[in-house]
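Researcher: Next entry in the queue.
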Amino acid sequence: LPRPMVVTIHDLNFLAVPGTYDRGYTRYAERAFRLSAQRATRIVTVSNASRDQVAALLGVDPGR
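Model: Structure for this entry, 64 residues:
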């Protein structure tokens, strides 16, 4: 939607630790999280470590 959006991402363990999650879930989650992060005006994380993980694995500006 063409509205501001805030997304909360707790972690990206399904990407950070390959093989931990079912392949189907990993494919779905990667696509959904990446799309949500790209579209979001702001991204909320639970810690600096999660913020750094989102920036590194999804290519998102840590300032968002």
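Model: The CA atoms of residues 5 and 40 lie 5 Å apart.
Researcher: Noted, moving on.
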